Amino acid sequence: MASDRSIHITVINGNTSAAMTRGIDAVAQAICSPQTKLVTTQPQTGPASIESYYDEYLAIPGILEQIVLDQTADAFVLACWGDPGIEAAREITQRPVVGIAEASLYVANMLAAKWSVVTTLHRVRDMVEKTIAKTGLSQRCASVRTTPLAVLETEQCRDATLAALITASQQAIAEDGAEAICLGCAGMSGLDTALEAELQVPVIDAVAAAVRLAESLVALKKHTSKQLTYRPPELKPILGYSDGMQPSDLRHLR
Amino acid sequence: MASDRSIHITVINGNTSAAMTRGIDAVAQAICSPQTKLVTTQPQTGPASIESYYDEYLAIPGILEQIVLDQTADAFVLACWGDPGIEAAREITQRPVVGIAEASLYVANMLAAKWSVVTTLHRVRDMVEKTIAKTGLSQRCASVRTTPLAVLETEQCRDATLAALITASQQAIAEDGAEAICLGCAGMSGLDTALEAELQVPVIDAVAAAVRLAESLVALKKHTSKQLTYRPPELKPILGYSDGMQPSDLRHLR
Amino acid sequence: MASDRSIHITVINGNTSAAMTRGIDAVAQAICSPQTKLVTTQPQTGPASIESYYDEYLAIPGILEQIVLDQTADAFVLACWGDPGIEAAREITQRPVVGIAEASLYVANMLAAKWSVVTTLHRVRDMVEKTIAKTGLSQRCASVRTTPLAVLETEQCRDATLAALITASQQAIAEDGAEAICLGCAGMSGLDTALEAELQVPVIDAVAAAVRLAESLVALKKHTSKQLTYRPPELKPILGYSDGMQPSDLRHLR
Amino acid sequence: MASDRSIHITVINGNTSAAMTRGIDAVAQAICSPQTKLVTTQPQTGPASIESYYDEYLAIPGILEQIVLDQTADAFVLACWGDPGIEAAREITQRPVVGIAEASLYVANMLAAKWSVVTTLHRVRDMVEKTIAKTGLSQRCASVRTTPLAVLETEQCRDATLAALITASQQAIAEDGAEAICLGCAGMSGLDTALEAELQVPVIDAVAAAVRLAESLVALKKHTSKQLTYRPPELKPILGYSDGMQPSDLRHLR
Amino acid sequence: MASDRSIHITVINGNTSAAMTRGIDAVAQAICSPQTKLVTTQPQTGPASIESYYDEYLAIPGILEQIVLDQTADAFVLACWGDPGIEAAREITQRPVVGIAEASLYVANMLAAKWSVVTTLHRVRDMVEKTIAKTGLSQRCASVRTTPLAVLETEQCRDATLAALITASQQAIAEDGAEAICLGCAGMSGLDTALEAELQVPVIDAVAAAVRLAESLVALKKHTSKQLTYRPPELKPILGYSDGMQPSDLRHLR
Amino acid sequence: MASDRSIHITVINGNTSAAMTRGIDAVAQAICSPQTKLVTTQPQTGPASIESYYDEYLAIPGILEQIVLDQTADAFVLACWGDPGIEAAREITQRPVVGIAEASLYVANMLAAKWSVVTTLHRVRDMVEKTIAKTGLSQRCASVRTTPLAVLETEQCRDATLAALITASQQAIAEDGAEAICLGCAGMSGLDTALEAELQVPVIDAVAAAVRLAESLVALKKHTSKQLTYRPPELKPILGYSDGMQPSDLRHLR
């Protein structure tokens, strides 16, 4: 039996909404191990919510900056379903980075033969499908079910969100063959228990899944591979970004 | 922060070699959380090692019996790379079942863009490729590298095993583009640290990965979906198996 | 023109229901060549029907034993849609082994651009999809249509079975684009003519298809490859199985 | 046991070389059932051999004409690896049409986990890969190995052909993981026994495989589906082709 | 800035209907660059429309002959959705050959995340799916929507055609997630503007797309690769075709 | 024949190196139609070259800003192989956006059965493979060949770059079956002619290909679909970006 020293996890909300950061933090604090010291941060730049490719791309520099600024964490959780910028995050630190999308899919894969992702606005379908494809698990995916919910509504209108998720999930189960449900937005975090009671199938809270997987990677003493793809960025000037963001400075990151 | 009650994990060696069971147990005990109570068992029937489809299929009834006999565990780890019988295991209990193959691939996926599986005898290539395909992650797999190593040799001849693994892994890295290595046999458990020191890329010990992921599923309070595929077996007599193995008896399993 | 000597075919029912064995035998005897001597057997151990992964895995040792006990056959037909244990069967003998699932798919492929598999209980969908994927023909599959039929009902309640198959097949044709129907259960054997009359598309009886393909392999004088994957099992003790099932004894099999 | 009436099979050589037609006929006559009446024909128009897309497309009208002219056959074998025009052949008759490419792949699939196709000139690689893809079996294919052999050389220079096939097959086995070999040209027909003796893995003679599978389809009393894709061609004039080739005349074909 | 010399484009209607040739020419003349000299031809042999594999295969020799006869064109447009014989066309000339199917898919890919192909008779679904697969873009395809429209009706009954296309396209958008529409038949050419006005999504006229892409290839000074697959046909006699169609004569083509 | 009015194309270099912008502009001006007014710009923020995911993500906001600032162009060319941020670019304008990666692959697809991408540093292999996969054309890709070349070296050291490209391309042709070569970096633009002379297979200059395809889309009067995925970004504040970059301002873009 291992004697776990205290683990530091930093959870990074992908958007700049403080209310969503607090919501994510509440879920993350509730699920993490007693030994874990967990903080939840948010970018200083970027959109209030991520609902388009444009939002996602403008969010990434601020997300990466959170990693650059954080020398304490043993591992990072990227708390936006879509895992925006995760390949770049893995380039700038050796410390494990876990995306909540991938984490939720791995957990679903261990609990059900087929699962669906239930998520926000209809327009994000293509983004969600590409995220699943990136992880490699498209074949196990029964369907992606979108809703009329904007991201910030999921945080602010919990009852309406729950109702919309129940409807979409029941369709996924009845019509698409889903045997478990992944909640495809960090704003939906915390609704898994209520939803599970209603649906009688496993419902995966992506933030919770990612926190536990990040702890696991630290316990396993694993680091991101620096062999090829995730090597530190090549040296060069990058205009319009702060000193700490220059490749030459990134070399000092652990 | 969660206050984890004590978690019980049962690790099931897939074969009937007591020495391998002890080796697996040592690795599992060393990596599990301090709060976890972990036992390692082995089937009462089946082959001394699993190196063919024939071995695998004759091992599965005994593996499933270990689950039937165990009412204490909160989750099971199936400690044979190949995850033999895991779909059936998920049918007969609601408690999470984690295969060491799938667990190692999920961990590799979080650490490297491409990984290789390094494993035993050349003849198992097809089995290993099918295991990866079942998990859905074939596209992220750089290669499967087989060796002249029999399963029990990996346990008994540690130096020769390490040497063979180094050779095969270096080929995977240099020729196939691997950026991390998954050890594709429970008998190789415990060699990851030495191998990692040599190769300078992450090396995934599948048993260790699965123990931490099983703990995570329990902490997340998740159970296997009983919606469709993993429902309890239909009622019917099954000739030649003990009472506890009859579908009518399985209904009492939690 | 070849002068066919008498060919011996052994058809192995996958379950332990004598009535189903008789039903399969009737279809197989009716379709085999006049020169063929055909016997249908069933395992001494295993479930009365195969409707879950658990059933399937507990059936396989008994199925393999039927091959071990049979030194007369020139080829084997594995008469359970799902081809349970077929890779292991190919390891323990050089004589061709034909699964009824694969045989029916090859025949369908030669008759129609797209086909559907119509089968038993809803819960077997995942098993059926994996069987098709194993054969490699998922892309040609229009759909898998499940029914409320338990396996033994297909044998016992022929009218209700026929009615359910007509309904499911008509849906497959009208909604999924199926141009031929594969009957996805050995218990449905013998219903192809009645169904074909109703549907006006080819309906493949999997047992009949496999018997003719097994004869073809014998006529072609082909044996299972022993190059790598299907080599005889490695030598080792296997606990809990009879003497004949030990790898050292399997070496005497032709 | 079925009482097979005499079956009529017409084998259609895809090219206009009489010597190749005779070679194909010899193999086909030697392998067909004693009850089968088999004739081998060749198109009246088209190339002396098929080694490019151009050759293939100019061969197809003549191949289809052979079907139009033949009201006697119960089934057709399309004896050019590439199965040229087979979809159209299936439109103009209900009688089964078996391509030698697909037949050889189905047989290989029943004998080996992975197989390679060994064939003629390097330039046909793309055609061969597309043929395998059309059948749906690319995943089971270990490799396509081309040679410097022109099609007519395979018929005329048997020793050199055998030598080239041995070399290419040994590379496929040693380097690509092939466990069986498909001979990817009708001109190679008859060399399987000699090659098998040398290689010690199953070698599939595509013509022989197709003859037996065509007999099987007739014995199974199956016809090509006329549900959608393979319906008779729509009525319309077709300039430059003989009367019998007009869609209005095709309606009289059985 | 390039000083474009006059470019000669030959558009080849795939069928022998003069009315359709005129319709295609009107669209092609309207969209080509002012500097381009464009002629539209049709085969001297072949079907009046292409609605089956049989039609397609009997059309190809005549299509290829149009290329053989044309020493003036700098590039060819193959104006039948299905791009019949395009690989052979690329073998017999170095001048670029653009199929209207592939051209329309590339254009759709640059305008929309997912698109559907809306086309003629239900029976062509399989042909259309294979055409998309050949191009490699199946994953971006939301659906193939067929209609009751025969090919020649699309040319002759413009109002009914437009109505049927609107209905099918609206279903593709609402039910399948299409974000753009490809018109899957040369006979539908010219209807894109009216359809676009109705649907409010991009509608791709395949003939127009191909003409502009063919011009682009000429402007880029690119020729078809003669490295392997598209080398000139091997020398051999081809019975039943005119002198100019013999491989020895093709060597003189530029 | 169309009477093309003057078309305005803006080519956006993905990095902030003025020398590379000039090199791209020279190629683009040389290939564009005489009627086209073409300007080449570069972002005001971002890395001097793009050789990692980090570089790519920090480049995208500046690239998108170039589109926001440009109300003149009729179409945009995104001149960085990798097409960074192209989905977001398509959200913020209706005017066509063509990536040089996708353009080069479409052109290659029309000229060769299989092609390879030859590109910069070994570490970009994963990025390049994902770009090809995003376009949907992985199956047509013979290989990705990386070199020791940094991006800026390709611009600055033309002889060494040419030598390295020749070596890598020859390997792709001889060992991987490539029949055409795509130059996988905007910095390699202009080397296609010299390379083609050496290799005797088509070499695609990605910038040139994209310019002509962008002109084609304008000539075809096509706009990006606003149906679902590429709708304008949802309204919300985005911290740390200039006024013009706010979603509310994007609504004014044409």
Give an overview of the whole structure.
The structure is a homohexamer of 254-residue chains. Chain A has two domains: 7-100 and 209-250, Rossmann fold; 101-206, 3-Layer(aba) Sandwich (Rossmann fold). Chain A is 43% helix and 15% strand. Chain A has ten helices and ten strands. In chain A, the strands form two sheets. A four-stranded parallel sheet of chain A has the order 2-1-4-5, with helices on both faces. In chain A, α1 links the parallel β1 (7-13) and β2 (36-41). In chain A, α7 (158-176) packs across α8. The longest helix of chain A is centred in the middle third of the chain and has 19 residues, at 158-176. The two termini of chain A are 27 Å apart. At the A-B interface, α1, α4 and α9 of A face α1, α4 and α9 of B.
Number of strands of chain A: 10
Question: What count of structural domains of chain A?
Answer: 2
- The radius of gyration over CA of chain A amounts to 18 Å
The chain pair forming the largest interface, with residue counts per chain, is:
A-B, 59 and 59 residues
Family (chains A, B, C, D, E, F): Belongs to the HyuE racemase family.
Organism (chains A, B, C, D, E, F): Almyronema epifaneia S1
Pfam families (chains A, B, C, D, E, F): Asp_Glu_race (PF01177)
Protein name (chains A, B, C, D, E, F): Aspartate/glutamate racemase family protein
Structural descriptors:
homohexamer, 254 residues, Rossmann fold, 2 domains, 43% helix, 15% strand, Hydantoin_racemase-like (chains A, B, C, D, E, F), Iso_Racemase_Enz_sf (chains A, B, C, D, E, F)
In short:
The structure is a homohexamer of 254-residue chains. Chain A is built from ten helices and ten strands. By secondary structure, chain A is of the alpha/beta class.
